[in-house]
Amino acid sequence: MKVQDHAQAAAQFIKDEERTDWHDETLWFVRKKRDLAAHGIPEWEQLREWASQIKDHTLSNLSHYLESFEQKAIANGIRVHWAADGEEHNRIVHQIIADHDLKRIVKSKSMLTEECHLNEYLIQKGISVVDTDLGERIVQLRKEAPSHIVLPAIHLKKQDVSDTFHDFLDTEKGNNDPQYLTEAARQHLRDYFIASELAITGVNFAIAETGGFVVCTNEGNADMGAHKADVHIACMGIEKIIPKAEHLGVFLRLLARSATGQPVTTYSSHFHRPREGQEMHLVIVDNGRTRQLGRADFRNSLKCIRCAACFNTCPVYRRSGGHSYHTAVAGPIGSILNPNLDMKANADLPFASTLCGSCSNVCPVKIDIHEQLYKWRQVIVQAGYAPVSKKLGMEGMAAVLSSPALYHFSGKMGRTTLKYAPFLVNNGFNPWYKQRDMPAPPAESFGEWYQKNRS
Amino acid sequence: MNSRDRILQAAAENQPAQRDLPVIDFERLIRYDEPAVVFEQVLTKIGGQLIRVKSLEEVKRRFAGEDQEKFCIDAIDCTEEDRLKMKAWKATDLALLHTLYIRGSFGVAENSAVWVDELAMVNRLLPFICEHLFVVLEEKEIVPTMHHAYQKTDVSRTGFGSFIAGPSKTADIEQSLVIGAHGPRSLTIYLIENDSI
Fold it and tell me: pTM of this prediction?
C-alpha cells in the first residue's frame, strides 16, 4: 500500500545530501557509459528507428503474433498458460508448484513477477522463493523492493550490503570489499542452485516465428536455475513478442548498450525446447496491456524493452531514488505505465518529471516518454485525481497568466522580494527552496528592458 | 470465454492499423577491416582473453596440460558414449567442475559474443556451472555484427543455445565490476587462425 506520494518520498530521500549526490553521480556515470557505447555504433540512430518500427509493426499485429507464437511454443513442447491479470498469473505459478509439491524455488530477475507481487503471494501460501540476481537477493534479504529495474540495489552503499551480509550470510563485520561480498553471495546462492527443484525466470524477447524465448543476464543466474531445476516457469507480458529471430539482431545490439554501456549482456540465452526430462512452462500475461494497446496516446509505452536508460538519464529519478515511485517499475517509463495499472494510486507519477525530454532522447525504441507524461497529466486532472497542491498552484498560476496587469505586478513583487526580503522565500515554506538557494533577482524584467531599449 | 481467448480478442480489437516491418539494410551497418582484431579488443575489455592457436591439435595438447587433479571436461572431442554420460550428469555431479573445453559455432566482432548451441554444450549446465570456460573458435567464423550472426544459424535448431560474451559478472554492489558472479570466473577463447592447416 502506498503511504507517501512521490514528492513526499523524494523529500525523505534527499535529506541525506551526500547519499543523494552519490546516487545522482553514479547513475549519470552509467548514462555516460551508455553514450560511449552508442557512439561506437555509427548506425545507432538507424538501429533505434528499426527497433521502433519493428515494435510498431508487432503491436499492430499483436493478436496474430501471439497466436502463432503459442502454436510454435506448444509444438516445441512448452506448456503455455494465459493470465488476464496479476492475480491469475500468481495462481497459475502457484498451481504448477503445488501440483509437483516442490519446495526449493529459485527466481532470476523478472519485472513482471514484481509487478504481479508473485513473491508476496507465494509467501502467503507458505512458499518461499530465493531471488538469485545479486542485487535482488540483497534487497530481498533486507525486505525491500528493487529501486531500479536493471540495478536493483543501486540505492544502497557497500557498507549497507556488508551489514546485511554480516547478518544473513555471516560475512566479516565491516568488510566492505565488493569482491569479497560478491564471492560470499556466489557461495550462498550456489547451494540454492544445486538444490533447486523449480526455476522461475523472466523473458526479454519471445520469438513468434520459432516459439522460443530469450533471457539475458550478466550473472548467469537465469541459466544456472533453468538448467538445473526439473521445472522451469518463464513469465512474460504480451508485449515481449517479436516477429522473427533476425529481429534480435536489432534488439540485442540496443539493449545492453542502452542499459549499462556493455556491448551485449554476458548471456543471451535462447530457450526453444525443454531439456530431456524437464518441464517448461510459459505464462503469458495481459494485466492491463491490451487496455494500454487501445489508448492511442499511450500504446507506445508497450514498446519498452526494460533497459532503464530513461531512469539513468532522468534528473528527477537520479535525485529522488526508485522507491519514491512506489511501484515495481520506477523512473520515467514507470510513470507512463503505472497510471494504466491504477490511475488513482499512481496519479502523482506523471508529475514527477521536469518534461526535459532526455528520457525520449535515449530510449532505444523511441518511446515519446515525456510527451506521454504530459498527456497523462491531462487525463489525470480530468479524471479528478490531480494532487491537491498541484491543483491550487495551477489555478493560481492560471489567474496570474490570464491577466497582463496581474502578471506584471507579480513579476515586480517577486523581484522586489528576492532583492530586499529574501528570507520571505528562502525558508521551509517555499518548496522551491528545499535543497536549493534562490537565485539572485535580475534588476529589471525583460519587458522593462525592452521598453527602454526598443528604439 | 477463457483468459487466452479474452486476451487475444482484446488485442485484436485494440491493436492499431497495420504498420510495416522495416527492411534491415546491411549496407548501413558498421564494417570492420579485421573482425578478429576487433573481437579480441572487445573481449579483453569485457574481462575475457584470447589465445591464438594453429590447430585443434594444439587445443587438445593444452587440455592435456590442464591440472588433471581438478575436474576437467573436454566436450569438443568426445565419443557418443562420453556424450551420453555427460548428458546424464546432474548439478550435484558437476558442482566441482573446474575446467570446460567447448566448441563455439561462430563469434561476433562487435561484442565478442560466441554462439554455443546444445549440441556443442552436450549438457546445458556445463558452460554455466564450470569455474573456467574455454571456447574454441575458428577465425573465419567471426562475423561483424549480430545481424550477420542471426543469418549464420537457425537458433531453434537445437532446444537451447546461448550467445556467451566474456565471463559472468556483476556490478550490483556500488557499480563495482566483479568478475565471477554465478557462472564462470574466466573465459578464454582459443582462436584457430585462418592460415592454419
Answer: 0.93
